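I am writing to request your help with a piece of structural work I have in hand. A protein sequence and the structure tokens that stand for its backbone fold form the material at issue. Please examine both parts with care and let me know of anything in them that strikes you as inconsistent. The record follows directly beneath this note.
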Amino acid sequence: MRFKPRPALPSHVSGEVSPSWRTSLYVTCFAQATAMLAFGFVLPFLPLYLKEIGVTPESAVVFWSGALVTSTGVSLAIFSPIWGALADRHGRKLMVLRAMLIGGLIIALMGLVQNVGQFLILRILQGMFTGTIAAATALVASIVPRERLAASMGQLQTSVYVGIAAGPVMGGVIAQVIGIRGTFFVAGAMLAAGGIFVWQFVHEHFTPPSTTRPLSFSESLRLGLRSRTLMPLMVTLLLVQLSTAIVFPILPLFVERIASAGDPVKLYAGLAFGLTAVFSAVAA
């Protein structure tokens, strides 16, 4: 009995990897940690920054803090499937470069805003063009050997946790020294630097997929909603994320309210966010 040979798979599926895949993995993890550091620099200080650009009273600060966080999440959810489709066609490295380089520019521009309307537009653009975790995860999955995939994903996840935990603390120190506006410029430069490292040192042997039409976003969503295993997981993740997202926009204001006169409020806010991330990582 004769068997027909299986058709060759494209390199990003078959496991053909660059000899320098370890370097590519380490650089991607470093860049992802840098990205999380940069985002962590600025998130704890959104309400305090709103006060600096003239938003009053405190009820308006609370409202706009929530609106700024929500706007980024909504635009990220809308555009992530689009970037995912483009990654399948043009490569994952390009998507990491897009997220980090354009994200760095957008974050830096936030340090120049003069009113909350400008800030809102940039936060929406941030959601549209960033999404570094998804881009880096897809890139790592395409560049490492199949037998090293689980370990490599663990390394990437560790880099994410390190950045999330250390970012707010380092951001608090920097904001206390040079101010919140300066912190945006530092964060933007860090994102851009991470993108340049990926551009120079990460090697991806990408082969465009066959002409077989992939599932659309709506088709994938319908399959997920019908799954008895996936649907409860999606609801659980939604509730977990919702519980933290409700608190984060107002946490710096709470720290400011309970702090004594002369206390380094920015540093305390960064510590509050950083410790939350540390305990979340330990619990995970």
In short: The first helix runs from residue 11 to 14. The chain has one domain: 20-204+216-283.
